[in-house]
Specification:
The protein has 310 residues and is α/β, with parallel strands linked by helices. It contains 11 helices and 9 strands. Strands 7-6-5-8-9 form a 5-stranded parallel β-sheet, with helices on one face. Helix 6 links the parallel strand 5 and strand 6. The chain is globular, with a radius of gyration of 19 Å. The structure holds phosphoric acid mono(formamide)ester. The site of phosphoric acid mono(formamide)ester has 9 residues, from helix 2.
Length: 310
């Protein structure tokens, strides 16, 4: 596989291959000098048309720890502001010589389009509500550190499922690895059709929490909402927010996850985010090693990423 566009393209074997390799890069990241020469001479460019803290910085850290050169492209300070279109921008960056383009864009499908305009590897760092495959990989890696296997584990994904690329990617990854997923949201925050989604749904978080091994919280994606889907954030918190009281419904071993950025006091109470069972910081830390593994497999190893249908 030349690109990483969707988690579905990897299949369970491809996901496990990346998770296995991530162990190596966790070890590298723990060294006093966390750097290896694996991608010396390679250049990785960022093309972020949407804001990011975690994904962009962890890809940049990953590339630098692998000794790759990086080409930073800030949309707000680029010729996009002079009217340059996506295709011309991609072809311009490609002409300078890049080996990989990491792209985030508000429009679903843009990473696929870009593969037609460049010979570089393309990595999807989030396309609208559609896919965020490296988020799913780092989430699976984090879960693997806590559970021997996801087989038969129950994961509740709670929040704005409708607009969430994380929900779509994680649902596919978790179920490919054997977990059972329940999507928990008010009707207005679920997609109009869930046909083909391998998940149960519920509007009652209190009924779902006692059987959950993991509660995965999502923020309201207000930048993608074009209508009023909620009476108020206060009412959302009352109905679906993970409060300390609701945490008491969880099994002792159950984990709390969130892809970030968190809106403390809405989908997650501040005290809950700081509990020992919250692995949000581990997710961020693991993002570096997992993205090192992705860059290494696509650019450096000469080993093909295992692709496969589910
Ligand atoms: N989880 C995530 O994608 O965070 P950023 O938007 O900060 O990259």
């Amino acid at each position: 596989m030349r690109h990483l566009l969707s988690i579905e393209d990897l299949g369970a074997a491809g996901i496990n291959e990346i998770l296995d390799l991530s162990d190596t890069f966790v070890e590298v990241s723990g060294r006093s000098i966390p750097k290896v020469p694996a991608l010396r001479g390679k250049t990785v460019a960022w093309l972020f048309y949407e804001d990011s803290t975690r994904t962009r910085l962890s890809f940049e850290t990953a590339a630098k720890r692998l000794s790759a050169d990086t080409m930073n492209f800030g949309v707000s300070s680029s010729s996009v502001n002079k009217g340059e279109g996506l295709r011309d921008t991609v072809e311009t960056i490609t002409a300078m010589g890049v080996d990989a383009i990491v792209v985030r864009h508000a429009s679903p499908g843009v990473p696929w389009q870009i593969t037609r305009w460049t010979d570089a590897c393309v990595i999807n760092a989030g396309d609208g509500w559609h896919q965020h495959p490296t988020q799913a990989l780092l989430d699976c890696y984090t879960l693997r550190q806590h559970f021997d296997s996801l087989e038969g584990r129950h994961i509740a994904i709670v929040g704005d499922i409708k607009h969430s690329r994380v929900a779509r990617s994680d649902l596919l990854a978790f179920t490919m690895l054997g977990a059972e997923v329940t999507l928990v949201a008010p009707q207005t925050l679920l997609p109009p059709s869930l046909e083909g989604w391998p998940a149960k749904t519920s509007h009652d978080i209190d009924a779902v929490l006692p059987s959950a091994d993991v509660v995965y919280l999502l923020r309201m994606q207000r930048e993608r909402m074009h209508e009023a889907l909620l009476p108020s954030l206060r009412e959302y918190r009352a109905g679906y927010g993970l409060t300390l009281d609701r945490c008491a419904l969880l099994a002792d071993h159950a984990l709390v996850m969130h892809p970030g950025p968190m809106n403390r006091g809405v989908e997650i109470d501040p005290e809950v985010a700081d509990l020992d069972r919250s692995v949000v910081v581990e997710q961020v830390a693991n993002g570096v090693a997992v993205r090192m593994a992705v860059l290494y497999l696509l650019l450096g190893s000469g080993v093909e990423l295992t692709g496969g249908a589910r």
